[in-house]
Amino acid sequence: MIFSGFGHRPDELGGYSKDTLAKLIAFAVETIPQFGPTKIISGMTLGWEQALAMAAIELEIPLTIALPFQGQEKVWPDRAQAFYHSVVDRATEVKLVCPGGFDAKKFWERDQWTIEHCDALFVLWKNWENPGDEISDILEANPGIPDFSQATKPPKNTNGIMRRALEYAEDKDRHIYHLWPMWETFLVDVSFEDFRDSLMNMSLDER
After folding, report:
1. Containing H/E element for 87?
2. What is the mean pLDDT of the segment spanning 119-131?
């Protein structure tokens, strides 16, 4: 299946640092192969989407980068921009969804495009109303995946952007896999140190 991803920005995941990104990449590398993705689509926003893109590269899964417009990274710090370009340059394919420069509505057009061109979504969002698709079939095929289908549901979120994307995905009958409970129980091991060391040689803002 072709997967895209939506999730929190770094401030909801531990901060803007190499450590946070390394943990996210390690989590993605450990988790997503169990779902059998044949391609990953990433919008390359800061946080989960960039980690998902890096995991695809590490796992040698074909990666499509969907850009809302040229220069979405221009408002970021120089190191974050350099890191962004280093990932985009390693993608299998780069899709420019909208021509021209900045326009806020183009982010939504990019989100729509990624949803329309995938079969399923990896969602890393702590405020979820339901666990998404039942994953009993995947659990049966992969006994090592914890069953979080009965996880406690947090209060309703006011994050309209994320909610709109997930509602659109549901309207398009896309499979939605909520990974937040797995992220919360993810045990950082030596793989985290490996990814952190590899990021030391990449340009990333260390705020």
Report:
1. helix 78-88
2. 79
